[in-house]
Amino acid sequence: MAGIVFLNTTLLCSPLPCLTSSQLHLPLTRRIHCSTSTSTSYPAATDKLPNSIDFSVTGGAYDFTKATTSLTNELITSSKKVTLLRHGLSTWNAESRIQGSSDLSVLTEAGVEQAERCKKALENIHFDQCLASPISRAKQTAEIIWQGREKPLVYIDSLKEISLYHLEGLKNVDAKQIYKEEYRIWREDPANFVMNGRYPVQDLWIAARDCWKEILLSPGENFLVVTHKSILRALTCTALGLGPERFRSLDVNNGGICVFNFNTRGEAMLEALNLTAHMYSDHVYPA
Ligand SMILES: *[C@@H]1O[C@H](CO)[C@@H](O)[C@H](O)[C@H]1NC(C)=O
């Protein structure tokens, strides 16, 4: 997957608190400079990309340091790549029902097909381990993707979806009616959303940090992680140094993939966000 970077424009446009303006400008300047220094002609935007890409591109700085704060607070054995994947369409996704940590919804037929597409798209990539949420819709997705691979799937609780207490099981339209104020805060001010005396989004940030430690301190260099949308948002935000108030600053579709690279200090660099080409074509990511 190296070299494929699909960044969400909202992410690019909102300056990250940990970057100085000179850090932000450097890659842009470089990109402009390099694109004028090559005489290769590019295919027109409407052309299909050739199968083997033979023009030069620059980027992919893997020797980064202090891109973000360390998620391990200790040196790790090697640099690591982590591919995060959201489960396929579930019965409750299809009904627009709030799922949270409940385990009553399962993959739909379309969701199974999406998981199969993910399997195909990732077939050339070697993963040392697959970690998954034990909740059915993610577990089923992971089982499909991992089928035929040798190592056992590893289920970890820190990959479970956010707890949404009495909102779980309700359709969004009904939750909005019945729990008007709570629902509004969940949507508009997630960091201050309180339920049952807990702050579910803040709790999720704690789970995400624990989860990163668990992943990054595991043996291996290349991990596949199959999980749910909210915890995936929390994993992405914590890796980028964003707080729970930024919960809704990114989104990942069913079957969507995010990729992070970590240096040996446990600092993250985002490589890809919400990769979904494989949902609409037979795209296979390179090893
Ligand atoms: C994620 O990808 C899907 C499919 O390409 C797209 O519809 C959706 O808007 C994307 N999400 C974001 C937040 O960019």
From TrEMBL:
Top class in the EC scheme: hydrolase
Tagged with keyword Cell wall biogenesis/degradation: no
UniProt cross-references to PANTHER family, sorted A to Z: BROAD-SPECIFICITY PHOSPHATASE YOR283W-RELATED, OS01G0237100 PROTEIN
Protein name as annotated: Phosphoglycerate mutase
List of catalytic residues: 87, 161
Range of residues in the leader sequence: 1-20
UniProt family annotation: Belongs to the phosphoglycerate mutase family.
Residues that coordinate or bind substrate: 86-93, 137
GO MF annotation terms: 2-carboxy-D-arabinitol-1-phosphatase activity; phosphatase activity
Keyword annotations: Hydrolase, Signal
Entry EC no(s): 3.1.3.63
Organism superkingdom: Eukaryota
Gene3D superfamilies according to UniProt: Phosphoglycerate mutase-like (3.40.50.1240)
Hydrolase among keywords: yes
